[in-house]
Amino acid sequence: MHARRIVFFLLLIARCGLASADDSALLVRGKYLMESVVACANCHSTRDPKDEGRFSKSLAGGRVFDEPPFRAVAPNITPDLETGIGKWTDEQIGKAIREGVRPDGTVIGPPMPISFYRNISDADLAAIIADLRAQPAVKHVVEASTYHIPLPPNYGPPVGNVRAPSSRDSIRYGKYLADIGHCMECHTPRSKQGQLVTTYLGAGGQVFNGAWGTSVSRNLTPDETGLKNWTDAQIATAIRGNDRSGIHYKPPMAYDWYKNISSTDMSALISYLRSLKPQPFGGQQKASN
To answer: Which pTM was predicted?
Structure first.
């Protein structure tokens, strides 16, 4: 009997050790994603109204996106129980991220890039949620978003099991990273109704106004007006924040986070961009509208 108890406790300790190692690996992956390619804090932080390159209250929301179709305010996604997501279950957080549905059933509107986040793998979603849970709770009330356009009833059917492509398949894995980093959300032209014109995927041309002035998204396709004549090193440097002449790019691209993308992931991203169909800048302004 005594021997059986010893075996039981040894098994229990081993299982706890495995669970601890799994949790640790999950947090490491979540921290990496959040501080690099996913870059949630780029939108979910309060911005200095005079200098949007400076921010505070990381992940506590408050950034305003004031556009003709909406006045959207990024919510507090820290684990604060009253003003954040501290009372949400992991399942509810995952559904909000990948399906755009809050626990009360309401639909999350733009600019949250739900159509791209639907591609987040189950494993990476769990890692992101683990990192959100590990953040300090910040009590910060933000105003509700206002939309002047009808929101969709949903963004598609419930997301089933999703697995990330193997990192050995650099183009497919690079596309996966571009999806969860929602690169094409900004680097694809939009129609007058605000919809992405995916016929010209990656052609750039979106205009962003802010405290920094005006910035225009670059053509990411291998066209003459895009990245055709750029080296891999130049593309990597640009993603991390500086153009070929060394000048630092303007917001709203998340350079402060993208600079942390690993060399392996950066290589995959570049392989994917190289594989895109060449498009003229802005789709020649969407074929002259």
So the answer is: 0.89
